[in-house]
Amino acid sequence: MRRPVGLVLIGLGAFFLALAPLVRFYVADQVVVAPLNQYQVTLLESKNATYFDQAELKTKTGVTLLAKNTVRGDVRANEGDNDIAVWDSTTNIYDQAKPDKPVQMQGFRIAFDRRTGVLVNCCGVNVDGDNTVRMSGYGLLFPIANVQKRDYPFFDTTTKQSAPMQFGEVEKVHGLTTYRFTQTIPLTKTAALDTKLPAKMLGLPEDAGDQKVDRYTEAYNTVWVDPRTGIPVKHRKNIRSTVQTADGKGKMIVAQADLVSVDKDQKAMVDTANGKALQIDMVRSYVPAGAIFFGLILLFVGGFLGLARREPPPIEAPRRADGKFGDMTPPGPQPPRPTPPSPASSEPRRQAPGSQRQQRKAAGTKRR
């Protein structure tokens, strides 16, 4: 019985050893990817912000601005190429006191490699409807499960240009060790406006008349990233948007805010990152290591049971035909057995009586 059990254990051990590289290099390649059907809503808040209220035609200060960002994956936009993920992002910035009147709306579509996070130009990518834009570097995600302490090129949708996201230092966000990256967007012309504003609104003498203006933006973006997954868990966008004349002498603030992810969404993103990191560790480390460990144990035990030298079974006493144990010597000529002496062997042996004639003759002799 030991040999069949040992062979079965050897087979199981070989199976687990073959399973380890399969999980590590094939299954992990299928699991460690960005999702196609992403859906995520995050909220950023800026207190003591400033913006120009177009309805009232005046600049408001000391207000609380909120930025609601929604990311939604379009699973059909990749035209059947499941190596590419296509995500749409919409950001609505509004005054907390007037949530139904947006201060600014921005939308864009990105496409990227699901395994590396690198942007690709396909599948209708655009920024605010401008599909002539060419994207490069990274977008909403850092390198998938492979974030290093170095700089990365990141595409800025406001300026429609790529700028370096520079590594700063390691920081904790709700107990999670993250890498902090910063991106500086210098003052950049983002739109040529077909409009003129009164000189007084631009800080110029009233006799200067109406002035043609363009829109300019500068920003200082900070992202805290989980290095195990590449998922950003906290954002900070310090933005300043202005309109100004061509010579830069006349200008007016359109929006100035220091937007930071609200605490509740930071915790939710930390939980998401921890869950994704566990999946990555399972297929990259825990399952392969466990398969190797159990495979070696099963091979050792199976080899011991199936290949070890066995002791011969004990010799049992033979059973005779009558059911009893004893000598099973085959029958054959047997030596004569000696006859034991009779108790009457000391007396003279009597002759057997003869025939009737002899008996009568003997009787007559006695009478004479």
From TrEMBL:
Basic residues composition bias: which ranges?
Answer: 358-368
Compositional bias segments (type: Basic and acidic residues): 310-325
Q: Which InterPro entries match?
A: PorA
**Keyword terms, alphabetized:** Membrane, Transmembrane, Transmembrane helix
Q: Which Pfam families match?
A: PorA (PF11271)
Segments crossing the lipid bilayer: 286-308
Q: Where is this region: Disordered?
A: 310-368
Q: Which residues lie in Pro residues bias regions?
A: 330-343
Name of the molecule in the record:
DUF3068 domain-containing protein
Source species: Actinomadura monticuli
Taxonomy of the source species:
Bacteria, Bacillati, Actinomycetota, Actinomycetes, Streptosporangiales
